Amino acid sequence: MGTPGGRGIPVGESTQTIDVGGVSRTFHLYRPQGLAGPAALVVMMHGGFGTGDQAERDYNWDTEADGGHFLVAYPDGQGRAWNAGSCCGEPQRTNLDDVGFITAMVSDIERQLPIDPARVYATGMSNGAMMALRLGCQSDTFAAIAPVAGTLLTDCSRARPTSVLQIHGTADDRVPYNGGPGKAFAVNGNPRVDGPSVESVNATWRSIDGCGPPNSTTAGDVTTQVAGCPNGRTVELISVAGAGHQWPGGVPKPVLQQLVGLPAPSTALNATDTIWHFFTRNHR
């Protein structure tokens, strides 16, 4: 557990453990230098087979936090996966309460450091993106969510209006842009994602938020759809033409990419910078 009041929380990265429902869970917390006053918090969830440490290395959120003066939490999924509904891995098979874990983690951080409850955000990659969508559907903690390369695999009928930014490559073969079954992530054929299209997930959130029709603009390989919604919220979709299952602007991993058959991250968009600027425009 952390140190109450935050004075014992070092600048930089620290690893912490909390007990949730009798299960020991870990997360990494990044605290930039010069943090003053109630700060925004971004929860960054790794993809399937990943870890919080891997997400911290690969998606450049620490650098973004240094410039934006906010906190970043990198939780670790149990068995390197999240229970995002009908996916993924052991957490899904055992119906692990990952919504409870993430909300408990946020509360734990709030006990340690001054957090602005109106500026708590969730983002994630792949299975982590699916978890971000589940959090948007089934918790009241987050002012905005930003899933990257994910789809909606859980009940969202009781969601409260929340600003949403989706980022997705049109050539994603693991979580297909047009929905349906994707290519298996592992050689044994599991897990295999089968969910709705990216456009239909965006339409679901426009309905939840009571938004107007989206306006679309294209610049190079990047198409952005923005729908205005009541109370200053927005529901947005950024499609990256030709991009596969990836975090655009992330750190290339040539050996791993070749091993699992994934393309190098697109350089047409810096997803981390784009998401942070989206978050800064949205608060409770």
How are the SSEs placed, and which strands pair?
Blueprint: E1 12-20, E2 23-31, E3 39-45, H1 52-58, H2 61-68, E4 71-75, H3 89-93, H4 98-112, E5 115-125, H5 127-138, E6 144-148, E7 163-169, E8 180-181, E9 194-195, H6 198-209, E10 215-219, E11 222-228, E12 234-240, H7 254-260, H8 271-280
Parallel strand pairs: 3-4, 3-5, 5-6, 6-7, 7-12
Antiparallel strand pairs: 1-2, 2-4, 8-9, 10-11, 11-12
InterPro entries: AB_hydrolase_fold, Esterase_phb, Plant_Biomass_Hydrol_Est
Organism: Mycobacterium conspicuum
GO molecular function, one term: hydrolase activity
Task: Label this structure with key terms.
284 residues, Rossmann fold, 27% strand, disordered N terminus
Provide a descriptive summary of the structure in words:
There is one protein chain. The chain has 284 residues and is an alpha/beta fold. The protein has one domain: Rossmann fold (3-Layer(aba) Sandwich). The protein has a 10-stranded mixed sheet with strand order 1-2-4-3-5-6-7-12-11-10, sandwiched between helices. Strands 8-9 form a two-stranded antiparallel sheet. A hairpin with a 2-residue loop joins β1 and β2. The longest helix has 15 residues. It starts with 11 loop residues before the first strand and ends with a helix. The N terminus is likely disordered. This is Polyhydroxybutyrate depolymerase. Keywords: Hydrolase, Signal. One of its GO terms (cellular component) is extracellular region.
